[in-house]
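Lab notebook, bench 4. Still working through the backlog of constructs that have no structural model yet. Next entry is a single chain of 129 residues. Request: give me the C-alpha cells for it.
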Amino acid sequence: MSRPDPVLTAAIGAIDDRLSQLAAAIKNMVIAECLTTVTLQLNPQGFAQFDYSVRFASVAVTNLSAAPVTVTTQTPAEAAPVTGTGVAIVPANSGAAYNLAGHSLTLYGTPGDRVTLSVFSRPSTPAWG
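Model written out:
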C-alpha cells in the first residue's frame, strides 16, 4: 500500500476549500427576481407590448380600469386572444399574479386604460385581489 502524495493531498484540499467558498458565495447572491415594475397607459390602439432579453416566469397586473385587460405572452395581434396557453384575463378594477412565461408580453384593453405591471424572472404563487 502506497502513501498519499502530500502535494496532491494539499492540492485536493485547496480545491475543496475553494469550491466551498464559491458555493457559499452563490448561495448568498441576490438574484434580480423583479425585471420591471411600471404603471402605463394603453396606447391609442388599446395595447402595450414588451420584449425581454431574458425569459420571465410570472407577471402581476393591477388593472386600474373599468374594463377587463388581457395579458398574453404573444406579440401584438389585431385583437386580443380570448383563450389559450399564455393568456390571462384580469377583471376590471382588480389585480392578479399569473405564472406566464416567455420573452414577449402584450397587454390589451381599452385605449387610455391604466395598468400597473410587474414582471418576474421566477414563478410566483398565483394571487387575486
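Notes after review: Residues 6-27 form the longest helix (22 residues). The CA atoms of residues 1 and 9 lie 16 Å apart. Flag for follow-up if needed.
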